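INFO batch 0412 | record 1 of 1 | parsing
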Amino acid sequence: MSVEVSVVVRYRRAVTYGVNALLGALETAKAECDLRLGTTPEETAEHIAASPADRVLVLWSFYSPDAEAMAAELATVRALADDPRVLHIAGGVHATAEPQQVIDAGWDLAAIGEGEPTIVALVEALRADRPLTGVPGLAVRDGDGTALRTPPAPQLPLDAFPSFPDRRRHFGPIEITRGCAYTCRFCQTPFMFGGRFRHRGVDSVREHVRRMAAHGLRDVRFITPTSLSYGTQGPEPALDAVEELLAGVKEELPADGRVFFGSFPSEIRPEHVTPEAMRLLRRYVANDNIIIGAQSGSDRVLAAAGRGHGSAPVRDAVRIAVEHGFRPNVDFIFGLPGESPEDQDASLRLAADLADLGARIHTHTFMPLPGTPWRDAEPAFIPLATMRELDRLAQRGDAYGHWRKQAEHAARLAETAKAYPRRARRRRTTDN
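INFO prediction complete | emitting tokens
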């Protein structure tokens, strides 16, 4: 028996890259089905109600700071379109880290880990009317409300699925690296994707660019946790691999095509910013800015965070980048666990010095993100004097960011962490 399946996506600008990868996986696996995109909760409910399919799978993807708002949206959609045909599934790093919290918040399913193999297997299982406990990479609601985990989904080579489907409106940045060998204690990337790099091959990247160019697109951007780590598994950049990538992309673009590398939505580690690397980028890229991850001006805090570099390389990186015609945007996180007033002063001094050199400071507040080693850590207090200095830098045009909003998110995440202790037992489908 074949069951007709419709997929409705709560399509939000903040998570289009991840959703586009899922749509690309469905297209590649020829598991496409009736697909509808809801850009608001109301539109999502309308698509559910209008679907003629036997089963309706509603996809939600969100980051941890958005979990509470998305749960409220889910309640709205359920109130508007309460239908027994419907399964709501949450995916992304928050669902991976906190499946029980997601199930308790009202979702029927949580996707654990990388979503491409899971979404393909889930649609196939629904079509065949098979039990979902056989779908890898899920948490399903058990009879007592416990998040029951299925076997893990495989981590496939990045070339196995595209970054987006072959549809004009769904194109976006090309994911060239997944996973990260730098296990910073505040970062969700190694938890979600693994502590090693998996790189997309140059041939696959070029195929993405050819498809984009065929649709008239001329700008290419990339998703990667650390741009100049492309092609390597170690701490040193493989600049030959980076040049092969960039040269290949340029060959696939029209004469007026532009390549953006080391800028949003990716960044460059400070110790990777060398004169040789900047000269290489200058030959190929259109961006006049790069993003550098500093995070703190305190060597003590950087060591505790597992960054793998001190503050001196940050200063060197900004100087080198400016000398080669780039304006650096430098990330700083305030309120990291164990940060003292002296550590914050060191960060403020470094930020001011970098601004004088020509950098812009991107300010963040530490958030205890699920899945990270610092999930249960207490954020350091940020005094009024530090806030005033950050405001002063922003008023001068030397700083930007949503650090105040992130402080609100941090308080909510800390409460969630207390409500869901990390050591709670995980129940699996193979448990007795």
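INFO post-check: The two ends are 31 Å apart (CA to CA).
INFO record closed
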